[in-house]
Amino acid sequence: xxxxxxxxxxxxxxxxxxxxxxxxxxxxxxxxxxxxxxxxxxxxxxxxxxxxxxxxxxxxxxxxxxxxxxxxxxxxxxxxxxxxxxxxxxxxxxxxxxxxxxxxxxxxxxxxxxxxxxxxxxxxxxxxxxxxxxxxxxxxxxxxxxxxxxxxxxxxxxxxxxxxxxxxxxxxxxxxxxxxxxxxxxxxxxxxxxxxxxxxxxxxxxxxxxxxxxxxxxxxxxxxxxxxxxxxxxxxxxxxxxxxxxxxxxxxxxxxxxxxxxxxx
Length: 265
Fold this sequence. Notes:
By secondary structure, the protein is of the alpha/beta class. The chain has helices at about 5-10, 35-45, 55-65, 80-90, 110-120, 130-160, 180-190, 200, 210-215; strands at about 25-30, 50-55, 70-75, 100-105, 120-125, 165-170, 175-180, 205, 220-225, 235-245, 250-260. The protein is elongated.
């Protein structure tokens, strides 16, 4: 396993280059069939798969069985209103992140306020403007795709790094920690890594080199040791390998730190 390459992948991964392998699936929910058919014509012409629902309860059922990437949700529907449906979607861990575009009457500000409170992501007014509708759908799908892909990559990376004997820390170009495995947390005695700056943290430890060398060096890789604090000399020494990751323009895009315990003799 090439740890540096793996960490570089974590820093450089760009979800903008990934496209849907299949057509995005959109659930259109409206009790007026004419509206559903119109939206279906517009969306299928733009390469979307469309699922239909005609009341609030059917909408919730179709969400569970069809797993749509986005929902176009009318407010006034039988059995459950669009507001009620949206609230139930947001209260369910499985469906809480599905983008919802609420269909409102033109200039109905009260409906939009209630929609925001229910958890709607965006709004489209009747009569439908084709260009506006497609732009809003595309924008929300793009944001959802990016979020989903980043989470998937983060989950995969964490599962790979979890049980490695080496400690792995991945930071951005500002030295803010983005990923750290369990071994690194134990070596560095870090419990909560949220908003921790790696450079600031290392400056508090006993390093074999001046802390300024970590920032001033133009070398890709720098090796050094982290010694136990004077108050705990029985702890193990740690060998550290810091790597700066550059883009094609030689700008730093990320930093990785590989840590390995060294038994003191």
